[in-house]
């Protein structure tokens, strides 16, 4: 059976400020994790989850992302080695994640989103979300528990039940202070968004950091449409900072050649 989630978006327009000075020369999405760029892990995850069409939202000056997948501007889109048809859209002005998604998302169909900074090891996370979408016909968010002191760095979900891996979401709060956080369950950069969220993004206004926040539009649909969360049980590495990038490299090296690599400490675990 064909997946109802055929399109995925990878927002890749960020400046990589947390990885300066490396990102002055190389976009953060092309920094290596073991033997391939971090971007390629997200592309491969999307392909393995049944995605057919991938849209990468980039920024002026990041043409090397196109070169990575042998982009040919005479064709307009290409088929990557992962089997996906890949298209590029340029976000001329950085207005946040929500704006990147509303620029690229098709209307009237669900769309997956993968943040390439987040490298996830274990069972294919996006495939789990797609499977949950088939069952629930609702927006699906990947979440993982984080330390209370770190909730201010994430979108945090307020859930009504903790039974099983699929959770009912009643609210989403962007980067709350620890004493205001409704839980320690953080959204970790994988989504399947129902058309209701895409519709809400069309009229969304800038809020935090004067950016269009995806979490605002997800939160706006919670009262009118079902939103679910799926707990990801694998390992997560934030490759947007030096520590996470190093830990991801060590983890991949250990998986390929464990006898030659010492034990890897996963500092992202709660």
Terminus-to-terminus distance:
37 Å
Strand count: 14
* Overall form: globular
Widest sheet: strand order?
A: 5-6-4-1-7-12-9-13-11-10
Counted up, domains total 1
CATH superfamily: Spore Coat Polysaccharide Biosynthesis Protein SpsA, Chain A
- Poorly predicted runs: 71-76
- Write the H/E string, N to C: EEEHEHEEHEEHEEEEHHEEH
Account of the 3D structure:
The chain is α/β, with parallel strands linked by helices and 270 residues long. It has one domain: Spore Coat Polysaccharide Biosynthesis Protein SpsA, Chain A (Alpha-Beta Complex). Helix content is 25%, strand content 26%. The strands form three sheets. Strands 5-6-4-1-7-12-9-13-11-10 form a ten-stranded mixed sheet, sandwiched between helices. The chain is globular, with a radius of gyration of 18 Å. The N and C termini lie far apart (37 Å).
SSE blueprint:
Blueprint: E1 7-11, E2 32-33, E3 36-37, H1 38-48, E4 53-58, H2 64-68, E5 78-79, E6 85-90, H3 97-104, E7 111-114, E8 118-121, H4 125-136, E9 139-145, E10 155-159, E11 166-174, E12 185-193, H5 195-202, H6 214-221, E13 227-231, E14 235-238, H7 242-256
Parallel strand pairs: 1-4, 1-7, 4-6, 9-13
Antiparallel strand pairs: 2-3, 5-6, 7-12, 8-14, 9-12, 10-11, 11-13
List its traits.
single chain, 270 residues, alpha/beta, Spore Coat Polysaccharide Biosynthesis Protein SpsA, Chain A, two-stranded antiparallel ribbon, 7 helices
């Amino acid at each position: 059976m064909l997946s109802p989630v055929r399109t995925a978006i990878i927002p890749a327009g960020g400046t990589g400020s947390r990885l300066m000075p490396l990102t002055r020369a190389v976009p953060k999405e092309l920094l290596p994790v073991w033997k391939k760029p971090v971007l390629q892990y997200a592309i491969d995850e999307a392909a393995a989850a049944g995605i057919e069409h991938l849209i990468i939202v980039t920024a002026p000056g990041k043409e090397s992302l196109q070169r990575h997948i042998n982009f040919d501007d005479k064709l307009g889109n290409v088929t990557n080695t992962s089997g996906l048809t890949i298209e590029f859209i340029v976000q001329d002005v950085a207005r946040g994640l929500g704006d990147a998604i509303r620029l690229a998302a098709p209307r009237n169909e669900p769309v997956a989103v993968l943040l390439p900074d987040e490298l996830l090891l274990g069972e294919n996370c996006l495939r789990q979300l797609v499977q949950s979408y088939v069952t629930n016909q609702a927006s699906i968010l990947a979440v993982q528990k984080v330390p209370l002191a770190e909730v201010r760095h994430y979108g945090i979900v307020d859930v009504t039940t903790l039974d099983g891996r699929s959770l009912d979401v009643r609210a989403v709060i962007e980067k709350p202070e620890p004493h205001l956080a409704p839980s320690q369950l953080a959204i970790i950069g994988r989504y399947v968004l129902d058309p209701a969220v895409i519709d809400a993004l069309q009229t969304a206004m800038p809020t935090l950091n004067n950016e269009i926040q995806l979490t605002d539009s997800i939160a706006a649909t919670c009262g009118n449409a079902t939103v679910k969360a799926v707990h990801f049980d694998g390992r997560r590495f934030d490759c947007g900072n030096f520590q996470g990038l190093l830990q991801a490299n060590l983890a991949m090296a250990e998986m390929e050649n464990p006898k030659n690599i010492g034990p890897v400490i996963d500092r992202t675990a709660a």
